[in-house]
Amino acid sequence: MSTIQLGTAKARPGQKSWGQVLIPVAAHIRSYAKGHHTTLEEHRLPAHREYLAWTPERVLHWAGTIGPNCGEAAQLIMKSRSIPEHAFRPCLGLIRLEKSYGDQRVDQACRRALKLNVVGDKHIASMLKTGRDQIPLVEIQGIGQQT
Questions:
Q1: Nearest-CA neighbor of 69 among 34, 47, 98, 40?
Q2: Rounded to whole angstroms, how far apart are CA atoms 47 and 117?
Q3: Are 68 and 107 in contact (CB under 8 A)?
Q4: pLDDT for 66-100, tens place per residue?
Q5: Which single residue of 5, 39, 61, 137 has CA 20 to 30 Å from 45?
Q6: Is 113 exposed, middle or buried (0-12, 13-18, 19+ CB in 10 A)?
Q7: How far apart are the C-alpha atoms of 10 and 39, rounded to whole Å?
Q8: CA 33, 35, 39, 45: dihedral to nearest 10 degrees?
Q9: What is the 3-state secondary structure (H, E, C) of the chain?
Q10: How far apart are the C-alpha atoms of 85 and 78, rounded to whole Å?
Q11: Sign of the four-CA dihedral 35, 41, 44, 48
Q12: Exposure of 10 by Cβ count < 10 A (0-12 exposed, 13-18 middle, 19+ buried)?
């Protein structure tokens, strides 16, 4: 249930004050179905409505504009979630990295993540932050192999 702040309340001696009076904005019948959302479209914030209007294809296309490896990484992230919309935030996190690191480095980091099978926006962000995306892949292929 959403609430708005109506005003402040004064506490009597010995009482705790929350400093606000809350009134309900919307009420919904409780749903016991797991994984289902019950929020009505008209109760959502305008920004949330725009977000829900996005399609997986739109997000994948956006990731693909950074580079082919980034598009492939976004596809794997999308496939890893049972509900495609739950993959939007990690994919958008991946896309957002382009602003800080440029499309070439992000695509290179995605290529490395795909080779190492550690595709995720946090893993890729860590690679970029520590500069591991710039180490040639040949150097890391021997990891875990015995000589």
A1: 98
A2: 34
A3: yes
A4: 999 999 999 999 999 988 888 999 999 999 999 99
A5: 61
A6: buried
A7: 33
A8: 170
A9: CCEEECCCCCCCCCCCCCCCCEEECCCCCCCCCCCCCCCCHHHCCHHHHHHHHCCHHHHHHHHHCCCHHHHHHHHHHHHCCCCHHHHHHHHHHHHHHHHHHCHHHHHHHHHHHHHHCCCCHHHHHHHHHHCHHHCCHHHHCCCCCCC
A10: 8
A11: positive
A12: exposed
Contacts of 100 (CB under 8 A, 6+ apart): 128
Query: Can you tell me which residue has the tokens 């890893």?
Result: 80
